[in-house]
Amino acid sequence: MRAVGGGMAGDRVAGVLASRRDQATQRGIDLAEHLTPAVTTGDPRLIESLIANLIDNAIRHNHPDGHVEITTQTSGTQVTLTVTNSGPVIPDTQIQRLFQPFQRLAPDRNGRRDGYGLGLAIVNAVAQAHHATLTTSARPEGGLSITVRFAHASHPNLQHRGDNYARLAT
Question: How far is the C-alpha of 151 from the C-alpha of 131, rounded, in Å?
C-alpha cells in the first residue's frame, strides 16, 4: 500500500480549502475548518474530487456574508467529513434529486447560473465507489449539511484490499 497524504502529498481537505479561499473571499463567504486526523483507504484523487465538489457547491450555492464549515473526525471504525453551508432554504423533497446528474434547483435561486448540476452526482458516485455513507439534511435556516462516512484505514475489512491511503486531515 502506498501512503498518500501527510508530508508529501499534503492533507486533502486543507489543500482543497487553500485553493478555494480566494473564491470564497470574493463571494463574501467565511470558511471555517475543524480538522482532526482522519485517514481512510481508497483512490486519493477521487476522494479529493469528492471534497472539492462538496466545498465548491457549498461556496457556489450560498449567499454573501454566508459561511461554510468543514469538519473531519475519526470515531471508532469511521472517518467522517462534514460540509455545512448557509444559503437558500432547500425543501426536503428536493434533496435526493440534487444527487442525480444535471439536476439543480431553480437557476435563479442564488442569482447565478454557474455549474451544471454535476457536483453532488460526482460526490454520490465517489461515495458509492468507496462504500461510504452519504447523509444530507436541509438546514431550517437555509443551506445544507452533508456528511460522508468512510471506513477508517485501520478497519479490518480494508487491510487486504490493496488500496491507497487517503489522508483527509492530519
Answer: 8
Cell of 90: 432547500
Whether 168 contacts 79, CB under 8 Å: yes
Length of the chain counted residue by residue: 170
Q: How high is the pLDDT of residue 37? A: 87
- Evaluate whether 93 touches 10 at the Cβ level (below 8 Å): no
List the one residue out of 170, 82, 166 whose CA is nearest residue 129. 166
Please state the pTM of the whole predicted model.
0.81
3-state SS, 24-74, equals: HHHCCCEEEEEECCEEEECCHHHHHHHHHHHHHHHHHCCCCCCEEEEEEEE
